[in-house]
Amino acid sequence: MTIVYDDRDGQDAGEVPVRRIRFTINGAKKVAEVEPRLLLAHLIRRGIGLTGTHMGCDTTNCGACTVLVDGTAVKSCTMLAVQADGHEIETVEGLATASELHPLQEGFKEEHGLQCGFCTPGMMMAAKALLASNPDPGEEEVRWALSGNLCRCTGYQNIVKSVLWAAAKLRSQAPAATDGSEQ
Amino acid sequence: MTQALDEIKIGGLGASRKRVEDNRFIRGRGNYTDDIVLPGMLHMEILRSPLAHARIKKIDTSRAWQIPGVHLVLTGEMMATRNLAWMPTLSYDTQAVLATDKVRFQGQEVACVIADDPYIAKDACEAIDVEYEPLPAIVNPEQAVAGGAPVIRDDKENQADNVIYHWEVGDAEGTERAFAQADKVSRLKLHYPRSHPSPIECCGSIADFNRATSKLTVYMTTQAPHIIRAAVALVAELPEHMIRIISPDIGGGFGNKVPVYPGYVCSILASILLERPVKWIEDKTGNLISTGFARDIYLDGEVAMRSDGKILAVRMHCDADHGAFFSDAQPSKFKIGLLHSAFAAYDIPVGHITARGTYSNKAPGGVAYRCSFRVTEAMFFQERMIQAAARDLGMDQAEFRRVNFVRDDDFPHRTPFGFLTDSGQYAKCLDVGLRAVGYQDFLKQQEEARARGRLLGIGISTMTEPLGAGNSREYDILGIKMFDSAELKVHMTGKAIVRTGARTQGQGHETTWAQIVSHELGIPAEDVVVEEGDTDTAPFGMGTYASRSTPVAGAAVAMVARKIRAKARKLAAHLLEVSEEDVEWELGRFYVRSAPSRGVTIQECAIAAYANMPDGMEPGLENTAYYDPPNLTWPFAVYIVTVEVDPETGVWDVLNMVAVDDCGVRINPMIVEGQIMGGLTEAYAMANMQFITFDADGNCVGANYMDYLLPTAWETPGFELHSEVVTPCPHHPIGAKGIGECAAVGGPAAFVNAVMDAISPTGVRNIDMPLLPDRVWEALTYHRDVSGAPPVRSDD
Prior knowledge:
The structure holds two protein chains of two kinds.
Chain A: E1 19-25, E2 28-34, H1 40-47, E3 66-69, E4 72-75, E5 88-90, H2 103-110, H3 120-133, H4 139-145, H5 157-173
Chain B: H1 22-25, E1 42-48, E2 54-60, H2 62-66, E3 70-75, H3 76-81, E4 86-88, E5 94-96, E6 102-103, E7 109-115, H4 118-126, E8 129-134, H5 141-145, E9 163-170, H6 172-180, E10 184-195, E11 204-210, E12 215-220, H7 225-235, E13 243-246, H8 262-274, E14 278-281, H9 284-290, E15 294-305, E16 311-321, E17 350-358, H10 375-393, H11 397-404, E18 413-414, E19 420-421, H12 426-437, H13 439-451, E20 455-464, E21 476-477, E22 480-481, E23 484-490, E24 496-500, H14 509-521, E25 528-532, H15 549-576, E26 583-586, E27 589-592, E28 595-601, H16 602-611, E29 622-627, E30 636-645, E31 652-662, H17 669-688, E32 693-694, E33 700-701, E34 720-722, H18 742-758, H19 773-782
Helix pairs in contact in B: 10-18, 14-15, 15-16, 17-18
């Protein structure tokens, strides 16, 4: 990132401290130079340009900015970009492949689990973390796992159905042997 | 031989078609305002007042200007030199853009900074020094009219006190006479607390003034782009054809994104001054403490009854707290909106309502939070009053409603306050709801539980809501009549684009408008693309709020499709070489009446409109319709809730919630159910936890999501929805009525009535929302009503 300032007789921006970090996002390795105070959510949105990660509240309540860091659901507005140094980040843009939607994405569409769509990426990432640790959750477990994510449109009933839909599809796809266990 | 089209298969009326817009949202490819990046774009942040009421003695911006990366610091003084320190409101008052003389509520916009980066802009805001002289704060109507109260709006000539208006409707004398003849009078007082719509996405804008073309483009979170274009033309004195408002994807609106906010105006001025795009994205605290709130009214009313349960008359007084500026975003000519829709579902001969509006040191901008304006308050009071009256009379609350309902054969029905309700099957809806919840069984269980010290309760709420403003006779915004519009262009291959003056914020217009076209023309819904939100391309319309999209814009879509069909019929006659009178229509196809196998499809008519039109016919298959509804639509609903209250803690749990909605014909049942569930959740939120209030100094309590609680998946109860009662709207082209807001309007009273029923042995008449555990505990422990009016008590 380059910022050009007006020259005001020496009062320029030479003092901004910058740290270099390395991380992986949706499988791609990146290097970034960031202010230590930069939030991870802003690095993802403004630095990398992945705008599917939304910001709703700035206080870690709404969960619209939820991403996975090394597989754990994290609210990226409450993590500094420098803390992502050496870690693997996954965002909503990493869910689908070129040819195929992730079952969570299909489930949200099938069960009408979204309306305005603003909370949806965070919901799906939180749900992905749940399904990685619990492939066959009950309704109560889904509700608990998503209780860090706010939705103002749907009333959650269809979101819960969407996650259960995805869980069923993932289980039906899972080969008996290996593969997919790293997620 | 062609086979008749299956309307459900082509995604027509009644199909639970999967949503088109989901395809981008589930991929994280939505395009919300904050996602837009323009070349050379700068960032704006707002400095807000920490005090609720104070004189500004001095603003020193010199330190902010010194910070590298800062391009502009705007203050009220600078705005004033361009006549932009104040702006007109939608309720014919004025509102400060940036404060000059005083700050009048906590969070008021005082200055803003435009910089290379939002972090720099925030730093610079902190470097602005403002010297305030604090003044006493007013946080409720009682304080506003007390002797010696400071005059909040001392900027206005002829404003010697804090009263904004007095208003009344109905027949005072007739009501008085009816009360004199009553066997029983029942009274209820309550406060419908201030609430905030709080969409997850906050407000924001990117103003982009291009000096070379003199064109101003503004991307912004607005539910009503054309209204904004008109407002910008008036406020900023720019020519309307040089203003383009684009409303990208909106992360929820609920009424919050109807008004014009100072941030929009400042970003526009900054872009004009700097000739660069300027982005402003509000933070959550800014959204909660400064943008359009809802409710905050005090209602005191009574009903006169005969001993057999018949209601003879009703009267109410309303004290409305409007905050620092009277900037209610509402389209009616009535000062207190549609509050007088109260009791519209009941056959009551006479009534009288008085209202008084006052200023306070609280955020301005009353909005219709998921309702037609003030209908939520009207229905809430109505249903709380009905429950109290039934109890006073010793009558079963369901039976009391049944006795007083407007009957199915009484429509159209004129209410005592002048509305004309059009249709409904009220008693049938109630029966469906009572059966679903197992009413009689529950009453037995309740009695048994009570004997063992457990507190069960059942709450009923009914509502009929005047939805779909206007008609244009009675409804306008800034004088612009409340119609709406649709433009339909059928391309030569039979594919089509439809544009409307509405703006979806999650309601699924991209899916449902195509279904209406499909229903009218037989073009598969997947062949119709929907576009909204760009004032340079969309036909003029009044936007989406007050559940008006389907009643007005949706009607316009049907009407424009019918215009297209009328032209296609001429083309069909030409292609079939018969006269137009001999042509019959079935879904997607015209045929010769005497030879049904001879026909042409709508797609064949489409290509003929471009390639084979008859001599003298204007080419093309495009049209526009403006729809001015003859009346509002009147959906009806019954909501029934059962709860259990913990007598030790005051915590209450929902056992069951049944919703019976009659919204006429459903375009997409899946989407309608989604709207109902969302509305029920907001109703639960208002009844249970959503709490934004003020302390005695005017500090806002509930200024972030740690204090202003929204229910999560964990708290939100499950809902049982019923759709078996369908009363088509008699005047809507496809028989639909509004639905987006019904559950949020009618729902709160069902929850509160259930809790009040559970604790009825205490004799307590009212606990103000939200029914927080400590309030319920107080009522249970001390057997007294519990007020929630500000200032908030120190132990809350």
